[in-house]
Amino acid sequence: MKLEKKEKYIVALSGGPDSIFLLNYLLQKKITNLIACHVNYNFRKDSLNDQIICENICKLNNIKLETLNIISNYKNLTFNFESWAREKRYNFFQEISYKYNINKVLVAHNLNDHVETFLMQKQKKSLVNYYGIEEKIFFDNLLIIRPILKIKKKSILKYLSDKKIKYAIDSTNTDLNFLRNKIRSNLKNNQLKKFILIIKKENKKLKKIKKSIQKKINKGFLQLNDFVENEEYNLRLLFNFFEFKKVGSFFYKTKKAIIKEILKQIMSKKSFIKIQLDFFVIIKDYNFIYIFEKNKLNIFEKTLVSTEKKMKFNINLNRNFDIIITNDWEKWQSKVFYGSKKLSDYYKKNKISYIQRYKNILIFSKTNKIVLNKLN
Predict the structure, then answer these.
(1) What angle do CA 288, 290, 294 make, to 5 degrees?
(2) DSSP class of residue 362?
(3) Does 169 lie in the same domain as 265?
(4) For residue 101, what is the domain's CATH number?
(5) Residue 91: CA atoms inside 13 Å, Cβ hemisphere, count?
(6) In the chain, fewer beta carbons within 10 Å around the N or the C end?
(7) Is 132 marked as a binding-site residue?
(8) Residue 24 located in a structural domain
(9) Domain of 332?
(10) Is 19 marked as binding a ligand?
């Protein structure tokens, strides 16, 4: 991958073989306008050794090093450490990017990492946008670049050994409680070429699927006939729709089973489904699926006194009944009447869209509960 020599870069430096190789790789190519970033999680007893290695190599090569030191109690870990550590690390990159006005971050993922990630994605049946690791990707305002993604781990270790360059060894990399470590322990060098070809084919297929899905979600809503007989496609369609509607962040931290349950409800024979999650609502309205922010539904209810009736709504009543004005049809549909029918029966018989029901303003007497205005 070509990098500009005059460009400023942040380089992620863990002290491990990959990041130490990356730094040497950059210096060899005369790319020296660098700010190195190291995060010491203090997760291992020997974590300080990693930091010292980073400090020494940066001092030797006159590279500015920024270090984030995290003190945390890991004894009763209740979260996924890898995900949490990644979030802390990338937030630190953003902080440093603002400080030095640099928006490009160089990260030391290699070819083995690429294949391991693909195997993890397949094993977890993840709904990914790309199989393996991309060479370039945006994280908010940062462009993440992986210059050594096509280099094998074996070649990295050989280079460091030949040059007698010191690096840290992360003892947790041998802990088979981590899925990546299990996969890594079984992955052989002679299998890499085969998996690279498989990844290319999978990404080619995925690109076609994404193109098909994009056309469907660009409408801003989904229809039941957008779904097919393939569950994986349907889950991907739903997940991409969530991302398109800017609610995907909720599902990043939840289990895939939640999306499966939503899909199951959507595909049921029920004509109306309302699923409230966090700050948004998913609504199935006959053959249509919508997503709204909760505050955008604007559900309201107000009781009007007699002086307000004539002024605002021009309602003529012989007696001074209090009037309720609302769009909360779910609350009142079984309690009020439209003509001689219950509101719920009128809506059902005329197949009034559920979205239209939210738009309809109900004006009725608090006493006799008869809707006084004409509904669409």
Answers:
(1) 150
(2) E
(3) no
(4) 3.40.50.620
(5) 8
(6) C
(7) no
(8) yes
(9) 301-371
(10) yes
